[in-house]
Amino acid sequence: MFVRILATASLEFTVARRNRWVIVSVAMMMLFSLVLSAAGSAPAGQMAVDPLSVTVASLISLAVYLVPLIALLISFDAIAGENERGTLALSLTYPLARTELLLGKLVAQLGVVAIAVFAGYTVAAVVAFASGGVEAAQGLPALWRLVWTSVLLGAVFLSLGHAMSCLARRPSGAAAMAIGLWLVAIVLYDLGLLAAIVADDGGSFTTDIFPWALVLNPADAFRIFNLAASGAVDAASGLSGAASSIAVWKPLAAIVIWPLAAALLARLSFQKVVP
């Protein structure tokens, strides 16, 4: 089973290297990380934290928006595209289970996300060390935490992209669903929570429901977990209050459970696909 999954992943990764979205994804991560790290190094001398921690605090906000977008861009046509080209029916004639095929695609595309994440964050770390010297080494644990949580966040939206690709008949429909998912999960969800808090005016929703609603969103769980462990929380986001009031195990549990839940959803959706 593992041999077949790795063989599928190797083939999918070879195909992915020719995908224009892969090049765009890596370039976007490197460019935006470079801009944020250069801008984030300016206030480091005014704060009791090292420049790399300040950079990591800025990268958290970048990753929340960019990593899910990258994952959806490279996964939305994983099934719908093959179905439209007629190659899915051929793939399913091989002695390869649907679970193995889907896991192979996930592993290959997760490798692409990991490359983009490592490339972007490495550029940011180099800039931080260039501006802060040895002192920047204090932020390495926060950077490493950001790396592996970013990869897990990418895994969530890769599997959700696979689910959208299974539910749509054409790649164009899968693309529309993927962008809609990104807008809802990354933008509209937080706006809805903010509106609910304003309407609640300090009531039971704000005190009892809001903390759980926040960590149930994988993007918000990712952000809160990294902010809570960052030495430069106050410089990063207005969510610093939420990050300090929510127990760390809650967003961590969400970060770990969401990739498994999303992969299960993708597998259930794939079962209904008829080539």
Strand-and-helix sequence, N→C? HHHHHHHHHHHH
Globally, the shape reads globular
Mean pLDDT rating: 86
* Uncertain stretches of 5 or more adjacent residues: none
Radius of gyration: 20 Å
Oligomer: single chain
3D structure, described in words:
The protein is mainly alpha-helical. Helix 1 crosses helix 6, helix 3 packs antiparallel against helix 10 and helix 6 packs antiparallel against helix 12. It is built from twelve helices and no strands. 79% of the residues lie in helices and 0% in strands. The model has no long low-confidence stretch (mean pLDDT 86). The longest helix has 35 residues.
Record keyword descriptors for this entry.
mainly alpha, 275 residues, single chain, 79% helix, 0% strand
List the helices and strands and how they pair.
Elements: H1 2-16, H2 20-40, H3 51-73, H4 80-85, H5 87-93, H6 98-132, H7 140-167, H8 171-200, H9 204-216, H10 218-228, H11 240-245, H12 249-271
